[in-house]
UniProtKB/TrEMBL annotation:
<keyword id="KW-1133">Transmembrane helix</keyword>
<dbReference type="Pfam" id="PF07155">
    <property type="entry name" value="ECF-ribofla_trS"/>
</dbReference>
<feature type="transmembrane region" description="Helical">
    <location>
        <begin position="70"/>
        <end position="91"/>
    </location>
</feature>
<feature type="transmembrane region" description="Helical">
    <location>
        <begin position="135"/>
        <end position="152"/>
    </location>
</feature>
<feature type="transmembrane region" description="Helical">
    <location>
        <begin position="39"/>
        <end position="64"/>
    </location>
</feature>
<keyword id="KW-0472">Membrane</keyword>
<feature type="transmembrane region" description="Helical">
    <location>
        <begin position="6"/>
        <end position="27"/>
    </location>
</feature>
<dbReference type="InterPro" id="IPR009825">
    <property type="entry name" value="ECF_substrate-spec-like"/>
</dbReference>
<protein>
    <submittedName>
        <fullName>ECF transporter S component</fullName>
    </submittedName>
</protein>
<feature type="transmembrane region" description="Helical">
    <location>
        <begin position="103"/>
        <end position="129"/>
    </location>
</feature>
<keyword id="KW-0812">Transmembrane</keyword>
Length: 164
């Protein structure tokens, strides 16, 4: 990977983490949190493709948990948000119908991944209780990524792609 790519991905992971840490809503019943992480991951994946989405999703997801005081979630967040970012980026490079499908799949990956993890860590009741807040967080992030990505593409006047 080129130094420019690594640097850009690191900056985007740090930015996603910083923005996410500004707004943290604790969910006591599931020992989890709601953040803006999904928005940063989706924006990165949509703008820069699957590799960037994977990197920023994994690094920011784990880093947020570390800094917010939820270390038991770090490994799971690395995996879940990394795959989510990859899916956002991969499908957004496809035909129009698949772009929307990619956003939906990214949301599903996050919600199901965290429900399974919550069930593993805290039981079935907590897993079921985690679904509404994770569905809200991920859907909100994916939805606001669309206009932000559109504005960023217009502002730059060029395509921001490294994965091709």
């Amino acid at each position: 990977m080129q130094i420019k790519k690594i640097t850009l991905y690191a900056v985007l992971a740090a930015l996603t983490s910083a923005v996410s840490l500004l707004v943290i809503i604790p969910i006591p019943g599931t020992n989890g949190i709601i953040t803006l992480c999904d928005a940063g991951i989706a924006i990165t994946g949509l703008l820069l493709g699957p590799t960037a989405g994977l990197f920023v999703g994994a690094i920011s997801g784990g880093f947020i948990d570390l800094l917010a005081g939820y270390p038991q979630w770090i490994l799971f967040s690395l995996l879940i948000h990394g795959v989510q970012g990859f899916v956002f980026g991969y499908f957004f490079q496809q035909k129009k119908f698949l772009k929307s499908l990619g956003l939906v799949l990214g949301v599903i990956i996050m919600v199901v991944g965290y429900a399974l993890t919550t069930g593993l860590l805290y039981g079935l009741g907590a897993a079921i209780a985690s679904i509404p807040s994770n569905l809200f967080q991920s859907t909100f992030g994916a939805l606001i990524a669309i206009p932000i990505t559109t504005m960023l593409k217009k502002a730059t006047g060029k395509r921001l792609k490294f994965d091709h």
